[in-house]
Amino acid sequence: MKRITLSNGLAVVLEGMPHMRSAAVGVFIKCGSGWEDRANNGISHFIEHLLFKGTHTRTARDISQQADELGGSLNAYTAEECICVHLKVLAEDTLAALDLVSDIVCHPAFDEEDIENEKKVILEEIVVTNDNPEDAAQELMMSGMFPHSPVGMPVLGSEENVEGFTRKDIADFYNKSFVADRMVLSIAGSFDEAAVTAWLESSPFAELEAGEQPAVITLENPIVGGFFKQERDIGQLQLVAGYPAVSRYDDDLYAFVLLAGVLAGDGSSRLFRRLREENGLVYGVDASIAEYSHMGVLVINTGFSAENAGTVQDIIKEEIKDITANGVTPQELLRAKRNMMIALELECEGTMSTMSNNGKRVLFGFDEPLESIKARYEAVTNEDIIRSAARAFSAKEKQAVALVGDCEAIEDFGLLDI
Predict the structure, then answer these.
(1) Within this chain, do residues 39 and 118 fall inside the same structural domain, yes or no?
(2) Domain residues for 327?
(3) Strand arrangement of the beta sheet that strand 296-304 belongs to
(4) Which of 114, 327, 334, 415 has a beta carbon 3.0–4.6 Å from 386's, enabling a disulfide?
């Protein structure tokens, strides 16, 4: 991986993969709901949508047609701490991809008519998200766990906010956020490095204002746990439970990831085996770590019939209690580590995954070589797992459990037996 810094401070990450036939281009902007407040929640996501509605020289149709003509997959996403615009093309079309992506990111038109039309699109997206029980339970858990933090607000924002955004609101937030110091351009695949470097010198990226880094997000208020439910007439109960974890910079992150893997990371994990394989109570169950710059959340996610709620609750309680007291077996730890080693290696095989990993690591100041990351996972011991489990599961008042479905009669669904 090669890193270049343009004169305005914009970071460029290049990873040549000459054996590939494609190249992936991605722009990562340190902008998302984590830097919003109640009044403008959803504006980052709104801007992401508007980037595709036209620039000073391209219409929305031009953008989509040119991406299609390149045969590329042009897309974007907004998260709590990042907006990413990405495009994958054949190797020979790398400069054309850069020209298109740079225009989208650096020269959005923010036409008034497009703004009003896109409001309707995003309102439909909010409805779609709310109609999905898993998404609804996830938002219910996060908003309940972090009621005083931007992380607890939905990335899409509220219907009221979306309807009220003006062109000035959008332009002001864009001008503050889409600056060189908050941006990383990542390219991975087969491309002409000399040609790309020459293009960068006079590119739209080089013309961006330097700007400044956003304020560091902090968790000023404590986590607020509780039981949060939403009654719906659907076939299952959807459960999403959240527990305190660590930030992406914490040395215990690697133990937390392995802990989640042993709990419900694959077909051999404890909860998958007991809930599905041995008792047929669920179709799927998952545990993962949502990591942010200032904190993290260990999330357990599954769905089940209402009549099985008590049994599911008891099994999850038992496994959390056991792993907090005793940790994991040597075989479980070895398997979890090997799964991570394989996942990390396989991520290096694709241009998109390599581009994405490089871009996010540089954006968040975590530019660590793969071998070093692997060594951190290999160094995790059972004592580290027990310590991490204690940090996650030691306080009932910090667990946030959300249920969506036929849950009117359920008064509590705590999963900690401590």
Answers:
(1) yes
(2) 226-405
(3) 226-231, 400-405, 237-245, 296-304, 282-291
(4) 327
